[in-house]
Amino acid sequence: AKQLGKNNYQLYSMSKDITSYKKFVLEKDMRKAIENEEFEIYFQPQIETGTGIIKGAEALIRWHHADWGLVSPGEFIPLAEENHLVHKIGHWVIENVCRQLRSWKDQGFTLRPIAINVSPIQLMKKGLVDVVAKQLSHYDIPAKYLELEITEGTLLKSEKMVLNTLKDLRELGIKIALDDFGTGFSSLIYLKEFNPDIIKIDKAFIQSLNAENNREAAIISSVLHLAKGLDMKVIAEGVEEHSQLEFLKQNECGECQGYLFSKPVSRKTFEQMLVTGYLK
Ligand code: C2E
Ligand code: CA
Ligand code: CA
Ligand code: CA
């Protein structure tokens, strides 16, 4: 037993070393990743629940790293938040989405709003509004085609700066979506204070709809009811199964997003979807 314990410890300590080595390398390489064109934006369609029509998409960043392969944003965005590269990366995403919208427009596609994730750190620094306004006007794209997704954590930092930035963004005509709804604290207080345009119900709720107990179902239908009363749109995230979709249909959830329809896909694949304009 002693022997096993020791081996386990060595395994543990080795994987810990790999993790911190990887962190170290990613952090170092992140500085050059934009210039090296290692980032790419994937799009995950957002679907009108009853019809399958593609109403928009969420932009999700991907990093193709020479040695580590595809690195997920869940891994490197937190590092970028620590070393403040999240501003540079965030600007890259905003510019690229605006350029993409321009290109779709020029190709004759009907434009749909694209949602961009913004980290609380980005909202705490001056200048985000200017960056967004500048890119929109440079590519001549109406603000209604951009949505920004923020998490409840962002509102937790209810510093004047954050609230002012959000207010200015909305004055530009950009819609704000409250991401991962239900996972933070005091969600209801934020709804009242902040009054977002869109609520995204976190995938944890949708996925536990499978379970036999109906508590999640009760929570989701209450959220849908509440959102209706407050005149907010709702998107259900992480929809993977038909039974979940059925429930969301019955409860009149406006839009769905999840693997049942499509994983996040490359620009090219998304364009093929836009040709028909709906997913079944
Ligand atoms: P998020 O904003 O909550 O994005 C949803 C995540 O759920 C995405 O992971 C998406 O691929 C995944 N997902 C979508 N449908 C399903 C489903 O049906 N089942 C399951 N199990 N998962 C699903 P991804 O792309 O790895 O992104 C992870 C997180 O990284 C995002 O969570 C977001 O917080 C952050 N992120 C992604 N792109 C950006 C970005 O450009 N800027 C910033 N600041 N953060 C980003
Ligand atoms: Ca949308
Ligand atoms: Ca999101
Ligand atoms: Ca989410």
From TrEMBL:
It comes from the Bacteria. This is EAL domain-containing protein. Residues 23-278 form the EAL domain. Transmembrane segments: none annotated.
